Amino acid sequence: MEAKYTEEVYPKAPDDARTADCEQISNLLDLMIDGEASPEEQRFFNHHIEECISCFENHQKQKLLKGLVTGHLKRVIVPQSLVHSIKAKIQETL
Ligand SMILES: [Zn+2]
User: Which ranges carry the Putative zinc-finger domain (predicted)?
Assistant: First the structure.
């Protein structure tokens, strides 16, 4: 029995648009969420997620997960509709 694997087995990566900035953002995520990023890092971060939906969503996701883990969900201020779309995304990702 020989299994056939083709390129089509794998879903297309949705994040072709990732840049070097996105790499930095993902490194900053933890710092931002823990409130340990420097003011300069915060500015860079906030500016980036205003323009980059994938990093914005990552940040929201991380905040949600962190909130779930630490029980501080009430600190996450997002519209319900966004929460729903993020939860849907999380389920797609997991
Ligand atoms: Zn980005």
Answer: 22-55
Alpha helices in 1-94 (DSSP H): 20-34, 39-51, 53-70, 80-93
Q: Assign 3-state DSSP to the chain and report helix, strand, coil percentages, each to 5.
A: 70, 0, 30
What is the pTM for the complete model shown? 0.54
Q: Nearest Cα to 61, choosing from 40, 84, 44?
A: 84
Report CA(15)–ligand 1 centroid distance (Å). Answer: 9
Cα(74) to centroid(ligand 1), Å: 26
Q: Read off the pLDDT of residues 54-83 as tens digits, 9 standing for 90 and up.
A: 999 999 999 888 877 766 555 556 677 888
Q: Are 91 and 59 in contact (CB under 8 A)?
A: no
Please report, for the chain, the start and end positions of each structural domain, with discontinuous segments joined by +: 19-93
